[in-house]
Design a protein that fits this description.
The protein is mainly alpha-helical and about 375 residues long. About 70% of the residues lie in helices and about 0% in strands.
Length: about 375
């Protein structure tokens, strides 16, 4: 028995390709507009916080880890004992592609390290918005595509697009990989997956997506070409693992660095349930918990909308693979930032909203981005 084939998406005609290019430009301009607003927020955070220049504000939190790797590379061992002055050795837990891009740009241009990191983040985030537009347009048309790109640019956690974070690079990989899978372009889908798995640990979700569609299509077509995608997608994480093994002599060094340095583990969702319970009983006592709890509400609502929509099944597989581990592990406060990487949920949210309702939702999201961004950049109230 052959697997049922999902509804195919028609390829673009030349006129639609032209309109798609204009749509990509529109999406990029929306993102630029969102960053102009963030410039003022960054300078305000510099004035209010202990740091008094914009670059210092933008290299906080995880940015520091990526910039350290870009500057000095990876250590060859882990520190002995608790997190200490040697904590830079836990940089082994951070995947290499973003630091490599920063190092490359700095070497080519002579830019300050932090500025090079911000430039890379802004460029890759622009690609993320364009790729998200392209995926949503392919599935639902131009209007939904532009709305989805706008929601991504002004998402409450989107202030990290202006910091040295992997969100922009990773979301670009997610959206482009899904687009290529929908279009049955197996080589490109696998390459996008490989870039994603070299960017951050949960890039493994892209391997799952490629495997899901590749196996279904291989069974239907009785050819092996669709399996190119799941064969290529693991190249990023495999390459990093082999490098660390050769560099440190320990094949499990990444797992040890993650466990010792950041203490995150799968707890079956206990942390998520506790966080939600504490939010209900005391909704404003912890800014991180409030943001994470509201993100869970968003996930639940948009997953329902996604199921009702019934798009190609790989979109639901992608959401489960990306957010399932997040909701099942400790570290509940980071849920808000991970939520926006699940691009299919943004499409599901925007396709059902009329123009007036979308404007209200997007305005609210932009306000939340301002509040959360200011809290993260100028205080210790929120950890992105």
């Amino acid at each position: 028995m052959t697997a049922p084939r999902e509804a195919a998406i028609e390829l673009d005609s030349p006129s639609r390709v032209h309109s798609g290019a204009r749509g990509c430009l529109d999406a990029a301009l929306v993102f630029v507009a969102s960053r102009v607003g963030l410039l003022g927020l960054t300078h305000l955070a510099a004035l209010l916080g202990p740091r008094h220049d914009a670059m210092s504000v933008l290299r906080q939190w995880d940015s520091g880890w990526y910039l350290t790797v870009a500057a000095r590379g990876y250590p060859s061992s882990l520190p002995i004992g608790a997190l200490s002055s040697q904590s830079w050795r836990y940089d082994l837990a951070f995947f290499p592609l973003l630091p490599l891009l920063i190092h490359g740009l700095r070497s080519l241009t002579g830019l300050d390290l932090t500025l090079a990191g911000v430039v890379v983040s802004l460029l890759t985030s622009t690609l993320a918005v364009i790729a998200t537009y392209s995926l949503a347009r392919r599935l639902c048309g131009h209007d939904v595509g532009l709305r989805t790109a706008t929601l991504l640019a002004f998402f409450p956690s989107a202030f990290v697009f202006s910091m040295v974070y992997t969100e922009g690079l990773f979301i670009a990989c997610v959206a482009f990989c899904l687009l290529m899978l929908v279009d049955r372009r197996w080589l490109w889908a696998g390459m996008a997956g490989a870039v994603g798995t070299a960017t951050r640990p949960n890039g493994i979700a892209l391997i799952v997506c490629c495997l899901w569609v590749g196996v279904l299509e291989a069974r239907r077509s009785r050819t092996v070409r669709p399996l190119l995608a799941p064969l290529i997608a693991p190249a990023g994480v495999a390459g990093y693992s082999l490098y660390l093994w050769a560099h440190t002599g320990d094949p499990l060094i990444w797992q040890k660095a993650s466990a010792q340095g950041f203490s995150e583990r799968i707890d079956g969702g206990i942390s998520t349930w506790r966080g939600l319970h504490n939010f209900v009983t005391s909704p404003i006592s912890d800014f991180n918990r409030t943001a994470a709890s509201l993100s869970v509400v968003f996930i639940v609502v948009t997953v329902v909308l996604l199921i009702q929509w019934r798009p190609p099944s790989v979109l639901l597989v992608c959401v489960i693979a990306l957010l399932g581990p997040v909701l099942l592990k400790s570290g509940f406060g980071a849920t808000a930032r991970y939520t926006m990487t699940a691009v299919p949920l943004l499409i599901a949210a925007t396709r059902r909203l009329p123009a007036g309702a979308f404007a209200a939702v997007c305005g609210t999201s932009a306000l939340l981005m301002t509040i959360i961004g200011l809290a993260a950049l100028s205080t210790l109230l929120y950890t992105p």
